[in-house]
Amino acid sequence: MRRVVRQSKFRHVFGQAVKNDQCYDDIRVSRVTWDSSFCAVNPRFVAIIIEASGGGAFLVLPLHKTGRIDKSYPTVCGHTGPVLDIDWCPHNDQVIASGSEDCTVMVWQIPENGLTLSLTEPVVILEGHSKRVGIVAWHPTARNVLLSAGCDNAIIIWNVGTGEALINLDDMHSDMIYNVSWNRNGSLICTASKDKKVRVIDPRKQEIIAEKEKAHEGARPMRAIFLADGNVFTTGFSRMSERQLALWNPKNMQEPIALHEMDTSNGVLLPFYDPDTSIIYLCGKGDSSIRYFEITDESPYVHYLNTFSSKEPQRGMGYMPKRGLDVNKCEIARFFKLHERKCEPIIMTVPRKSDLFQDDLYPDTAGPEAALEAEEWFEGKNADPVLISLKHGYIPGKNRDLKVVKKNILDSKPTANKKCDLISVAKKTPDTASVQNEAKLDEILKEIKSIKDTICNQDERISKLEQQMAKIAA
């Protein structure tokens, strides 16, 4: 007998907004005209770009800091122009990068328990773009590798640990870059641009591997993201301004694997992808709904699941990594929806009767451990994400502080544009300052050890004396 309805464990996923007292209230969400999500989330903090006079700022709130946020609450406010994009480091829950209209990228270290004073000094300022920086994206598997893209149509890949621009892709895009996405192991990037092209690029070889002209015919902004199997998913507009989504194989981009028309709204569709469940959530800017689809190997490849609808339109959206979800409630996604004056979490769950851990909903997921160091990646190595099990929930570990070791300026090459120079910078030997620092560190560690040994000996002596006293008293 033919199956009438496609079998899928995600057919009944439903979304629910949390109660009012669990929202973040009285936040002046940024009004800047830029199509980024304005919000970034991890298992510790939610960060939101806000309106700020005389520069750019964003809020960083511990997840439990719900309710009304005081006007005097400290912000991260080192930029001199509006902040356009923010992204949490996947390997350190206290490190966040921001790109701004002031043409700089800044990387910040947030204190473990959140901000008590406004933060004006970043750990490092990355300067190299000649126009505003609208996109920042951390490498998924290599530590301290950050990508930025600006309105100068250039993509720069930085080693944040040294503050250097090591790869500069400044001649690949002839028009504004709408978005950039890393693939699963960070060996390739895909981009969507105002020239209506979708490109797949190998950043280390600095070459375009595949491209599709007029992936979507319409003039409004597109988005392109990599899926876990290497295919590319795009959202855009048809010539008649209908919103579309499409699936492409980079090995043959002549025709899409699938192309679906959706509706005639004019908000840009922001895609959020979960590689563990192969679900894509589409949040339109200015829409009041989240649509979600499952990607499979069988036709029509992109299967509509459901729509979460609400009354208020969304100004932006944050998406929690899998390790920040509540596995006991069968939660498979959590969004942080930005309204004009508040941030409202929306929880997506799969209804299950059992309270036991549902291992079919939670395959091992990308953990916070980096698979590679920055230098290894720049030298050509690749590695898949280091996976963790969520069976007993995710317990955040201690994050090490981000340390930036600046190279000696006199040693480094004067230009940041020559391709061969850029790659060779990565292979320089550490300067004498870092060697001295290591020697000093060893000295301090030895001293700490000797003090600890002394304390142990004193403890033993005290306990013996106490025993003697007890005997005499008896």
TrEMBL record:
GO CC term, one of those recorded: flotillin complex
Gene3D superfamilies: YVTN repeat-like/Quinoprotein amine dehydrogenase
One of the record's GO molecular function terms: actin filament binding
Keyword Repeat in record: yes
Family according to the record: Belongs to the WD repeat coronin family.
SUPFAM superfamilies: WD40 repeat-like (SSF50978)
Keywords: Coiled coil, Repeat, WD repeat
Domain DUF1899: 3-67
GO BP: actin filament organization; corpus callosum development; endosomal transport; endosome fission; endosome membrane tubulation; establishment of protein localization; macrophage chemotaxis; membrane fission
Swiss-Prot/TrEMBL WD repeat ranges: 76-118, 126-168, 170-211
InterPro entries: Coronin (IPR015505), DUF1899 (IPR015048), WD40/YVTN_repeat-like_dom_sf (IPR015943), WD40_repeat_CS (IPR019775), WD40_repeat_dom_sf (IPR036322), WD40_rpt (IPR001680)
Protein name listed in UniProt: Coronin
